[in-house]
Amino acid sequence: MPFSLPMNDQQAEQLAAEINANGFARLRNVISQSELQQLRGFTDAHAQLHHGEYFAYHGEKALSQSLLGSIWGNPDFKQLVGALYRQATHQESASDRIFPVLRCVQGNVGQKESNCFHFDASLVTALVPIFIPTEGSDRGDLMVFPNLRKVRNSVLLNVIEKALVQNRFTRKLMTLAIDRGWLKPQTIPLVPGDIYLFWGYRSLHANKACGAGVKRATAIFHFGDPHAGSLATRLILQFNQRRARRVSDKTGAQPPKSTLGQ
């Protein structure tokens, strides 16, 4: 993918300031229409293998045959997420690895996999919309409670916070509170061709539900785990990967296995 995102320290500082102030930053018209069509073709082919139901593929191996590899391997993209991490933490990331996920929300299972609020394991999250519904009220908009927490020094505190919100009971309560207007997340309509950046580790986020007859597909790129190498982080990543594989396996073909999950 030949897009260019040259990023100097001043530009990275401006993007980081925008994320801090607004909850996210948006890079417009980065993915060309021809590139978007290739991504859609790959997604469509696998959506058919899963019989119109939800699936998620995690890791480089599972996505190596898609155009997404030219995003996470793009030197400008690597420079961008690395610079954002430095701006946020004032230090280098322990790893330069970018971890990709392709997530397709569709069908009845897709409705169950919506409103699943969570904090990411990695600090920098870049989201690339591929298919976004344009009609009706159930379009799967991104919901964000931005920058709710700081980067935790304690791995244990991070695990406890994630456990408190990333469970079925809390998510049902949050969904009910949002439906009744008691909680008001920032709602971000997504436009294919753009890239959206936010602090996934610090921001509680999820997608709204989609109608059963529509398709919402996004690529997500994770960078910069503040707790890289910890046993708790490895266990959480492995659990998330196994869960994603189980859900995808129930609806159709099995993707190639990767070694890590997000």
3D structure, described in words:
- With 262 residues, the chain is of the alpha+beta class.
- The protein has one domain: Jelly Rolls, CATH 2.60.120.620.
- 40% of the residues lie in helices and 19% in strands.
- It is built from 9 helices and 9 strands.
- It has helices at residues 9-22, 33-49, 60-63, 69-72, 75-89, 107-112, 155-165, 168-179, 231-251, and strands spanning 25-27, 55-58, 98-106, 124-131, 142-145, 186-188, 195-199, 204-207, 215-223.
- The strands form 2 sheets. A 6-stranded antiparallel beta sheet has the order 1-7-4-9-3-2. The protein has a 3-stranded antiparallel beta sheet with strand order 6-5-8, with no helix packed on it.
- The longest helix has 21 residues, at 231-251.
- The protein starts with 8 loop residues before the first helix and ends in an 11-residue tail after the last helix.
How would you describe this structure in keywords?
262 residues, alpha+beta, Jelly Rolls, six-stranded antiparallel β-sheet, three-stranded antiparallel β-sheet, 9 helices, 9 strands, globular, disordered C terminus
How would you summarize what this structure contains?
This protein is of the alpha+beta class and 262 residues long.
- Detail the poorly predicted runs: 256-262
First-to-last CA distance: 24 Å
Order of adjacent strands in the largest pleated sheet: 1-7-4-9-3-2
Overall mean pLDDT stands at 86
Strand residue percentage: 15-25%
* Helix content bin: 25-40%
Label the structural class: alpha+beta
* Secondary-structure arrangement, i.e. CATH architecture: Sandwich
Counting DSSP H or I runs of 4 or more residues, the number of helices is 9
* Radius of gyration based on Cα positions: 17 Å
CATH topology (fold) name: Jelly Rolls
CATH homology superfamily: q2cbj1_9rhob like domain
Biggest sheet features: 6 strands, antiparallel
How many domains make up the coordinates?
A: 1
- Can you tell me the CATH class? Mainly Beta
The total beta strand count reads 9
Order of helices and strands: HEHEHHHEHEEHHEEEEH
Shape call: globular
